[in-house]
């Protein structure tokens, strides 16, 4: 239950990504700077946090001794996750990006066979019950989006959805692979900093391309990117990675934590209503919200439910 609560809190802070990214695009900002600045701004805060915990040396030693998996899975978990999301924000509204992103709750479950069990001898199987519950939640998300489908063109739907679907698989894949690489040798704070540092070469290359093609970012975009870095990059990422780390050995509980991502759509709707002057959701969308809450409650119930113990009858003495 603790991991579920942390996952919901991370969704609250992560929702700022979709609202602020859309706000940046509306005000003329570029997705290139929106994505790269977030991770560049994250670095000093994460370094200060890890230094304060006196854990930087072990992390640096691990990065230098084994850089290849860090460079690969940081690219997958951070670059292939966030660059497509900010790119999609240039073409689709926040509700479309945030709604499509919720497919992560199913993508994470479908990735289960790519990982081995704790004994390292067999592949994990897709947990059917969490997949079914996550599908219920996704149905609620679709209901929330129904009223918007007629208002956007096919090209906007494709440019807004396909990049986000790539991100849906990249984020949990990179996170889980790095948990396997670290193998309890590094804590969550070290892992997030390590992945951020390993992703910096890619962000610097993207920033260089942005400088050459469109010039420097505006002051407004720098400020909003800084807010995204704090709320989403540092707080939300830490909470989510810590929550998944608590249940990393259980595919069922891991699916439940990843399903808390669905709560983001509710926070995004509220953010669009109050900050971007969008209209309130209609009755169909409200039904979808109720279904999402019901699905999260189901995940929480099965996460804390203790397995029933089978009682074995004691052998009776036989007098000979």
From TrEMBL:
<keyword id="KW-0472">Membrane</keyword>
<feature type="transmembrane region" description="Helical">
    <location>
        <begin position="222"/>
        <end position="242"/>
    </location>
</feature>
<feature type="transmembrane region" description="Helical">
    <location>
        <begin position="254"/>
        <end position="277"/>
    </location>
</feature>
<keyword id="KW-1133">Transmembrane helix</keyword>
<feature type="transmembrane region" description="Helical">
    <location>
        <begin position="283"/>
        <end position="304"/>
    </location>
</feature>
<keyword id="KW-0812">Transmembrane</keyword>
<dbReference type="InterPro" id="IPR032713">
    <property type="entry name" value="EmrE"/>
</dbReference>
<feature type="transmembrane region" description="Helical">
    <location>
        <begin position="31"/>
        <end position="51"/>
    </location>
</feature>
<feature type="transmembrane region" description="Helical">
    <location>
        <begin position="71"/>
        <end position="89"/>
    </location>
</feature>
<dbReference type="Pfam" id="PF13536">
    <property type="entry name" value="EmrE"/>
</dbReference>
<protein>
    <submittedName>
        <fullName>Membrane protein</fullName>
    </submittedName>
</protein>
<feature type="transmembrane region" description="Helical">
    <location>
        <begin position="152"/>
        <end position="171"/>
    </location>
</feature>
<feature type="transmembrane region" description="Helical">
    <location>
        <begin position="95"/>
        <end position="115"/>
    </location>
</feature>
<feature type="transmembrane region" description="Helical">
    <location>
        <begin position="127"/>
        <end position="146"/>
    </location>
</feature>
<feature type="transmembrane region" description="Helical">
    <location>
        <begin position="192"/>
        <end position="216"/>
    </location>
</feature>
């Amino acid at each position: 239950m603790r991991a579920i609560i942390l996952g919901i809190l991370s969704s609250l802070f992560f929702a700022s990504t979709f609202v602020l990214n859309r706000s940046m695009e509306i005000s003329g900002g570029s997705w290139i700077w929106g994505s790269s600045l977030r991770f560049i701004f994250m670095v000093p805060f994460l370094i200060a946090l890890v230094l304060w915990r006196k854990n930087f040396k072990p992390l640096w030693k691990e990065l230098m001794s084994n850089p290849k998996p860090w460079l690969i899975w940081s690219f997958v978990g951070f670059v292939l996750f966030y660059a497509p999301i900010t790119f999609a924000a240039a073409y689709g509204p926040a509700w479309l990006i945030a709604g499509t992103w919720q497919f992560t709750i199913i993508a994470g479950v479908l990735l289960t066979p790519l990982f081995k069990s704790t004994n390292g001898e067999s592949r994990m199987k897709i947990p059917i019950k969490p997949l079914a519950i996550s599908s219920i939640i996704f149905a609620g998300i679709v209901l929330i989006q129904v009223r918007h489908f007629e208002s956007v063109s096919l090209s906007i739907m494709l440019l807004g959805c396909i990049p986000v679907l790539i991100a849906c698989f990249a984020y949990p894949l990179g996170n889980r692979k790095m948990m396997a690489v670290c193998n309890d040798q590094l804590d969550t704070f070290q892992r997030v900093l390590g992945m951020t540092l390993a992703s910096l070469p890619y962000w610097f290359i993207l920033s260089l391309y942005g400088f050459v093609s469109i010039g420097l970012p505006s002051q407004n975009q720098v400020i909003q990117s800084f807010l995204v870095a704090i709320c989403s990059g540092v707080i939300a990422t830490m909470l989510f990675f810590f929550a998944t780390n608590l249940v990393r050995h259980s595919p069922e509980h891991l699916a439940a934590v990843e399903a808390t991502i669905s709560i983001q759509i509710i926070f995004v709707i509220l953010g669009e209503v109050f900050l971007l002057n969008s209209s309130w959701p209609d009755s169909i969308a409200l039904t979808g919200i109720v279904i999402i809450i019901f699905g999260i409650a189901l995940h929480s119930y099965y996460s804390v439910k203790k397995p029933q113990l089978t009682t074995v009858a004691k052998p009776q003495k036989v007098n000979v």
